[in-house]
Amino acid sequence: MIIFVPAGTSVKIEGSPWTESQLQYYKLDLMVAELKEETSNALHTKDTAGQRELHKCTDSSTVRPLIQLNYSPWSSCLESLEQMLRQQITSDWLEQWDVQLRFQEWFRVLLRQSDPETEAADDRARLQSSIRYIGDHYDQTITVDELAADIGLTRASYTRQFKKITGKLPLEYVNAVRLERSKQLLQLTDDRIHEIAQNVGFSSEYYFGRRFKQYAGISPGLYRRHHRQEVRVFAPYLEDFVLALGVKPVLQCSHHSWGRQHYLGLDDVPEFDVSQQDAQFNVGNIPDFIMLNKGHDRWNLDRFEQIAPTFYVDHLGEDWRSILRSTADVLGKVNRVQDVIGAYEDKAIEAKGRLATSLRGQTVAFLRISASDITLYGDQQGYVGPVIYQDLGLTPHSRVQQWTSRERRIFIGLEQLSQLEADHLLITFDTGNSVKPGDERELLERDEWKRLPAVKSGNVYEVDFMSWMNYGVISHGKKIEDVLRFMA
Length: 488
Description:
This protein has helices at 74-88, 93-113, 116-120, 123-137, 144-150, 155-166, 170-188, 193-199, 205-216, 220-226, 239-244, 296-299, 320-331, 337-359, 385-391, 398-404, 414-417, 447-450, 453-456, 465-468, 473-487, and strands at residues 2-4, 43-48, 51-56, 67-69, 233-234, 252-255, 259-260, 271-273, 289-292, 310-312, 363-369, 374-377, 395-396, 409-412, 424-429, 460-462. The model is unreliable at 42-61 (pLDDT under 50). By secondary structure, the protein is of the alpha/beta class. The strands form 5 sheets. Strands 11, 12, 13, 14, 15 and 16 form a 6-stranded mixed β-sheet that branches. The chain has a 3-stranded parallel β-sheet with strand order 5-9-10, with no helix packed on it. The longest helix has 23 residues, at 337-359.
């Protein structure tokens, strides 16, 4: 508890467990710095040695009540007061200013905790004010206890409600704000790393560097270099994202069975066969930077971590927008992201309108056919579903929804195939399991295939394997173009 006693007032405390030695006394000299018009008549000024002082005129008969306020946690209150006391005996005007700022911040917390309007506000509004406070004071020491006490919540309740709103724990959110700000400083200034670390609230350059790499995927120094110069990047099966941002990779991946991604038009870029587990870089094609997705284990590509700094994409392929943003962030192309995404969304909206007119509720299914398997792709996930069923609004055949049940894909047999009575079939051929060329097309000679309604009506459309079996804004754009060409 804190009690404000006007100067010259006698106070007697009775029935208190405190002894005199447990009470602490502080003297505050307050000066009016800004006046409202309605209170200006209660003040007069006088000039003394060129300095203007303001004195409040008060009636000596006026009884000024004691003000009782609470501060929680109390340990934080005492720590702040003691720090201000230690700092106030200084002749340096900047340090004196710092003491004033610290006092005002302490006083603001004190008043906010005792403000009846704050107590009456709903928890969400109070949490939002706390989030704004973090955004304004990320460069200062921030504790969860202080944040919770500031809006009158327990630490546990504050943490639970904070995560519900932001999706992050409080200190995790604080660090995210600091690290996002550090990205801006790395891009826009020539400040040293340790200076940037201190400016955003990290006391240790080492700790900052470790947290930055955990957050951004690369070191602060590498992040800065990528935003200031072109980078020689190797990004197997992520070339789509790199190229969409205007960066041509130094190598393009290929596979001995599937070939390379011809739809990207990288004819002048050397190939790197990821299916060769012992493949190495040529002297002239060593990258400065490597990007890998979740398939790196399959191709044993993490062995190249010793060759160049390596960034691991941890987003699911369906969340291609997040992959694009992460790629842009580490390659220094953030300013291009929204244009790329906007162009795709405009393309999808226009195509959706055209298809709604031409198809009018007709059903669609997508099959990947190999020499040994028939794969049906779902309507919610995977390379295909989010584009043709969600972005383009095509209607999946009832069996697609029933069988895949939100799976990316399922294998079906001939009996199930015969039940797939979609009005339109999109198909692609997987040559990966073929013993000899053409094995994967044997299905087209089966009676079960020939009896399908889409086959009999001529509504079967073969599409490019690599552009359809891929994530990325360019590949998805190719899917839209194919669907328009066949069905609009």
